[in-house]
């Protein structure tokens, strides 16, 4: 992990496009119909979203996005680690990067939605380790038995 580099992605490369497509396909395979909240490439190009990708050389290891909900809050989106690199700390590094970016923006709160089914247990454990706590729906989400909502209070230095 010593050569891991996280950078803002312009979402124009084939590797990231294929990676996001694989993420969407996986979410649709494991998540009940109507409960997939993952974004496609076009949605991730929204001006209020910044996507970070993690690389080792020219190999894409993972990604995660920060969506601005308001001037004081954001949402973690599109967290994904390549299968070959899971359980190596990639997601932790990306999440740390997103939290740092949110703090630099002056956000008071960082929110996220993830799955409630067993396939998302490791994701929920990761978020809990980073201080996210369970909460109710936020933004445009509605209560859904297949979704878990979490929030983290940020301590800004601004």
Please provide a written account of the structure.
The chain is α+β, with helices and mostly antiparallel strands. The chain is 28% helix and 32% strand. The chain has helices spanning 14-30, 41-44, 90-104, 121-129; strands spanning 4-8, 49-56, 59-70, 73-81, 109-115, 133-135, 147-153. A 7-stranded mixed β-sheet has the order 1-2-3-4-5-7-6, with helices on both faces. Strand 2 and strand 3 (59-70) form a beta hairpin. The model has no long low-confidence stretch (mean pLDDT 94).
Summarize the model shown.
The chain has 158 residues and is an alpha+beta fold. The chain has helices spanning 14-30, 41-44, 90-104, 121-129, and strands at 4-8, 49-56, 59-70, 73-81, 109-115, 133-135, 147-153.
